[in-house]
Write a structure and sequence with these properties.
By secondary structure, the chain is mainly α. It contains 9 helices and 2 strands. The two termini are 22 Å apart.
């Protein structure tokens, strides 16, 4: 599959691995892929504020990676996620829910299941659009197909699947 990746898509995956290593994460996640896309400027044409997006990802990580849908579901049960986060941080320190996990053995960082799904989905999107290569745009579109904190952060910046797809029409 990686032979279909353009240089930009490969740079995104490499950047995600570097970001995971930099933060001490045991696995590359969808968040790392988004941070790499930000760093490479792939979202600049959409007017995405890099700093605000990175800050929103940090906040999502602080909240244990809970999405807006997760928060709403808990609220429906009478559970205040902010209160839970505050209590955990009170007892265990700020960012206690955002722990990076165990460092990888031998220095190798592997892809988390969500990141693997993103790469597979990017191939499906490219094939569906009759395109022969996978670009950073396909990776972004794949990130937008999976509900969760990454899609929530992008939506807050006005980045939707329809908007991204419209900026890069499928090949004829």
């Amino acid at each position: 599959m990686f032979e279909k990746f353009t240089a930009g898509a490969r740079d995104t995956v490499t950047g995600a691995v570097d970001e995971a290593r930099r933060t001490g994460a045991a696995r590359v996640t969808e968040e790392h892929l988004l941070l790499a896309l930000l760093e490479l400027g792939a979202l600049d044409p959409l007017g995405v504020d890099r700093e605000a997006t990175a800050a929103a990802l940090t906040e999502a990580r602080r909240r244990g990676g809970m999405s807006k849908a997760d928060e709403e579901a808990l609220a429906g049960l009478g559970i205040d996620l902010d209160e839970i986060v505050a209590r955990v941080e009170e007892g265990h320190g700020e960012g206690a829910l955002a722990t990076a996990g165990a460092r990888p053995r031998g220095g190798r960082v592997r892809l988390a299941p969500g990141a693997k799904r993103t790469l597979t989905q990017s191939l499906r999107i490219a094939v569906g659009r009759r395109e022969k290569t996978i670009t950073p745009t396909h990776l972004l579109l794949a990130l937008l197909t999976a509900p969760g904190p990454v899609a929530d952060v992008l939506a807050a910046q006005g980045v939707t699947y329809a908007r991204v797809a419209a900026t890069t029409p499928a090949a004829a």
